[in-house]
Amino acid sequence: MVQESAILRFHSLLSSAFIEGTLVKLTFGKPTPQSQEPDLKNVYVRPVNLKSGPHFTFVYRYATRDVTKNFPPAIALETARSLLGTAFCDAHLFTPLQSAQLEIDAEGKARLRQKVAAHAPTSRSERHDREKRRPVPLTTGWLHRLGVTNAEGRPREGMAAKLRQIQKFAEILDSLLKDAGLLHDTRSEPGSRTPRKPLTVVDMGSGKGYLTFAAAGMLRDRAHVVGVEDRQELVTLCNEVAREEKLDSLNFIQGNIATATWAEDSRCDVLIALHACDTATDDALARGIAAGAKLLVVSPCCQKELRPLMQPPAILGDALLHGIFLERQAEFVTDALRAQLLEWAGYRTKVFEFVSTEHTARNVMIAGIKDRPPQQQGRLERLCAFAQFYGVSTQALARHLGVDLASGVTT
């Protein structure tokens, strides 16, 4: 007879990891004698964020093949529970704070072993120190008010990936601001009698404002942060939360990326546009360049413009008959052109992975820092040659900047 207390304790840990979004990985091993699939050797489980929302990937490892299945949280939890004791005698659970291993022997006796993770905070002071080191502390009020965390500062169901994205964005923005020489104190600098003017940071297509709040919370009185969002209900919600959290330097306005006016002179030091669909990313980049932004930060999404326009060379024809290759190639060409156009416009450009693909497929970030003279002819010739290689004669950001990709002429 199986020792129920150990099983129940493990099930409780398992439930917490799935529901609170703290699961790092879960492994099953040592198939039971009564297993209905004798060639099933192991099952590996990890969280993944799909277009339809947070899921858990189960990799079933057989003797000669692997089978992958994705389940939403509730079904994933029940599936994991059903494997233990029926298909496998051993389960190993990992979270950021601890690991737990449940073993069931041939007589049905269960043993649970738990171990605090080496990096887990064990004392109140250590937990406080770790909380202070987070770019956005988990107890931050707006995280709770926007539904990312509960009252205890833990991620709500389905929001763990979003919380990781917010933290990662804050880290990246802090680094980019320093690289651009923009992260300064608003008080007078040595030898100066006047304080430096606060930055103007504009988040185009701010949505529910998660990343806009992160920027405002990090910069405080060093910046005026504006979120531009087309949906009035989200503008109203975010402004209410900003007032409740006493973020006086943060406000949201209703408008679209192409036409919104956020100040009388529309000055902008930092422009952010994350997951703006298709050519909206190009509209945002063009607005930032026209406003003289020192820093541009975008994470493109749904790059559809170039796919029907591309006429790649014959050598690529057979490969690009496969739709998935054509789609990926179109995304590559689109973002590579954007990066090259920013370089031509005088921006030192970085392209990198925003967050891991296990959290979101929309994970490319393009950042540009204004630090050089624009419109270098040699660079223009190279980017136009790149476009012509793929048969691309027009692209949204190129049009905004007056670049004719087919001829290499600027207007």
Order of helices and strands: HEEEEHEEEHHHEHEHEEHEHEEHHEE
Q: Distance between the terminal alpha carbons, to the nearest Å? A: 82 Å
Q: Under CATH, the topology of the largest domain is which? A: Rossmann fold
> What's the number of extended β-strand segments?
16
Radius of gyration: 25 Å
User: How many separate domains?
Assistant: 2
Shape: globular
CATH class group of the largest domain: Alpha Beta
What's the architecture of the largest domain, going by CATH? Answer: 3-Layer(aba) Sandwich
Largest sheet: 7 strands, antiparallel
Low-confidence residue ranges:
120-132, 186-190, 356-361
Q: What attributes characterize this protein structure?
A:
11 helices, alpha+beta, 16 strands, 7-stranded mixed β-sheet, Rossmann fold, 7-stranded antiparallel β-sheet, 411 residues, globular
Produce the secondary structure layout.
Blueprint: H1 4-20, E1 25-31, E2 40-50, E3 53-62, E4 66-71, H2 73-83, E5 88-94, E6 98-104, E7 110-116, H3 124-133, H4 141-145, H5 160-179, E8 199-204, H6 210-219, E9 223-229, H7 232-244, E10 250-254, E11 270-277, H8 280-290, E12 295-301, H9 323-344, E13 347-353, E14 364-370, H10 377-389, H11 396-400, E15 403-404, E16 409-410
Parallel strand pairs: 8-9, 8-11, 9-10, 11-12
Antiparallel strand pairs: 1-2, 1-5, 2-3, 3-4, 5-6, 6-7, 12-14, 13-14, 15-16
